[in-house]
Amino acid sequence: MLYYKTIIKSDDSEWVTLLHGAGGSSSIWFKQMRYYRKHFNVLLVDLRGHGKSANKEWKKNDSFKQLAKEVVDVLNHLNIKQTHIIGMSLGTIVGQTMAESYPEKISTLVLGGAIINVNLRTKFLLAIGRTIMNFVPYMLLYKLFAYIIMPKKSHEESRLRFINEAKKVSQKHFIKWVKLTRLVNPYLTHLQVATRDIPTLFVMGEEDYLFMPPVERLVKENENFSLEVIEQAGHVCNIDQPDAFNKISTQFIVKHQQTAVI
Q1: Res 2: pLDDT
Q2: Contacts for 175 with CB less than 8 Å, ≥ 6 apart
Q3: How many whole angstroms from its chain centre is CA 177?
Q4: What SS3 string covers the chain?
């Protein structure tokens, strides 16, 4: 089972489950904990190959569906009947996959730095990565991707946090996660249709230049999706501007709270 940690507010409080991005771990939510624990029960999970779940093995055809099932296995183990999902970067794809495959488990989706479409520039970078990743030390690739996605001085804390966490990920696991991006566009288009009945908030940094435009287009086309843009923040907006991220995400969840079934 994946490594997890729970922070319990009360027996009748609703749950939020936090899903980090590729190369990160549950530690990326360190600026959210003090705030969220005042409002919710919190479940932190290290996804496969990351943090303290580093030894979780892959099978040949494993996909985002298997990654999502592993998180749901943790929910079932803890007897959590329903949860709000807060994801960051590639963790948003795991969250959306959970919402597609286990909709009864998911109350709302808060998708930070969401990846819902990969443009030509990003496709090109990923293709290069997939081509050379077996020959080049993966940390060089990860650092390159981190600087391209989070290029500004104001993104330095986020960038360094992810680079330091990525050092704990083995090259084998890094390769597996990169390979998952190969068919990401058609899969994400399917996910956005499948999950449109679940209240969804996208939280994007205004400087997230690679991933913001497709989110803006998607939200215009779906009335059940909404978008909040955080000023002076990049891709990892929960670290760049934590106060704004905490307030926006909590207000959205509280607005859609139900009587928790725990």
Answers
A1: 95
A2: 133, 134, 138
A3: 13
A4: CCCEEEECCCCCCCEEEEECCCCCCHHHHCCCHHHHCCCCEEEEECCCCCHHHCCCCCCCCCCHHHHHHHHHHHHHHCCCCCEEEEEECCHHHHHHHHHHHCHHHEEEEEEECCCCCCCHHHHHHHHHHHHHCCCCCHHHHHHHHHHHHCCCHHHHHHHHHHHHHHCCCCHHHHHHHHHHHHHHHHHHHHHHHHCCCCCEEEEEECCCCCCHHHHHHHHHHCCCEEEEEECCCCCCHHHHCHHHHHHHHHHHHHHCCCCCCC
Strand partners, 228: 203
pLDDT digits (tens, 9 = 90+) for 171-198: 778 777 767 766 666 777 778 888 889 9
Checking DSSP bridges between strand 225-230 and strand 200-205, what pairing results, if any?
parallel
Q: Which residue shows structure tokens 């907006």?
A: 237
**Average confidence (pLDDT) over 155-174:** 83
Domains in the chain: ranges and CATH:
4-255 (3.40.50.1820)
pTM: 0.88
**How large is the greatest C-alpha to C-alpha distance in the chain, in angstroms?**
52
In this structure, the number of other CB atoms found within 10 A of the CB of residue 178 comes to 18
3-state secondary structure of 4: strand
Instruction: Compute the average pLDDT of residues 217-242.
Output: 94
Distance, in Å, from the CA atom of 142 to the CA atom of 61, rounded to the nearest integer, reads 24
Structure tokens at 148: 């391209």
